[in-house]
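SEQUENCE-TO-STRUCTURE ENTRY
===========================

Subject: a protein chain together with a token-level encoding of how that chain folds.

Sequence line: the amino acid chain in single-letter code, read from start to end.

Question of interest: how does this chain fold, as expressed in backbone structure tokens?
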Amino acid sequence: MEGRDTLILMPTGSGKSLCYQLPGLALEGVTVVVSPLISLAEDQAKHIRELGCQAAILNSSKSAKQLRESHQDIQSGKAEFVFTTPERLQQSDICQLLSEVGVDLFVIDEAHCVSQWGHDFRPDYLCLHYARQRLGNPPTLAMTATASPQTIDQIVSCLKLSDPAIVATGTHRPNLRLSVMASYGDDEKERQLRSLLSDESDLIANEPAIVYCATTNTVERLANRLADLPMPTLAYHGRMKKADRIKSQEAFMNGPAAVMFATNAFGLGIDKPNIRRVIHHDIPGSIEAYYQEFGRAGRDGELAACTLLYDREDLRLQKLFAGGSLDSSQLRTAHHTLIQGVQRYGDAAGSVSLNDLKQISPVGQQTLKNCLQHLASAGLVAPSGRGQWTCLVDQIDHEVTDRLADDSRLRSEHRRIALDQMVQYAESTECRWSRIAKHFATQDEQAGNECCCDNCVVQVASVA
């Protein structure tokens, strides 16, 4: 309300949305909310409308007619909240429309996506500070449930937050019971899964559950092998057709209680309050990712169980995921490609589209896009809307691209460190909630009851 940039860290289900809804209603102008997924924006806008407020959605799922209607609602002042994605916000016409109306608050949901050190990294988030400039530099509210001190520093840096107020309410959720089960091979994991999903204690049986898997093959195998469970089994992963993913998600959200076998593609925007179990079939790549995923359980405040099936053999796959980085030559190649593209295909403003660039690029489209986004983070190039890019400097020194490549290698090393931290969590004998609090550098007071975690239960039993 004072116009100060703010970063809030609050557990899933603790009311982050209220932190922008109340100021958004009280302040004049429109509140722009950036969400990483279309489904997440749709869900948030639905809640806003249920509260009697007007909300417009600008993303690629909308028809031309729907977008025109949303533009009219914004121009007329009817829409108090505008939900969009970081990719859509790169379109200069949207920024111009919003800046003419006046933006009172710029909200970045799931702000951990901006951090190359954290999980769920979305390179398009690196360009949000350009959009903020085009919107007239309104006060920015960044929100996330999970961020280590290092991730916080990068969020502040990448979004160019000015002396932000940082509000952290802690990570502990006493209704979530954390546990780790040692496993040895897929057959034992399947037996453990069947047992967990048939558990009739704690009123968990036949209640909604999510089983996270590292690969699409595992998702499909388990969904088929465990199809004889008393409750329906569903599957969700990025290689499914969009219509099938939507059908599966809607069945989980609105149908009878089911088990969802999914990769981490399933999660953001899943605001289902009564998920009673979240089981990880494979070890996640970081504590941040793990906290985000198991945090989808028990949003209604009732008891929920969060279980990790831990097999050290799974580390091979995660170490493979942790590798990969951009090198200096790829970054220089991308910069040179952009200069050539502007000369060959550029418009009057000196911008060129990624589609045109890929025709002359010696590296693949995704690598080219990643390189441009990393060059943009250093102020060497910039997105100019509608998938267009412009070059800000004609030449770059080898030292600059070497430094960016070093950063990329450092991020790869950080992913390996993050995996080691996850292993330490799995093998630790201390309170698991305490371990998480230490990771995020919070001062949570643990519940100290039997619902806390498996290690605490063992300690209590040994004392007794």
Remarks:
- DSSP finds 17 helices and 16 strands in the chain.
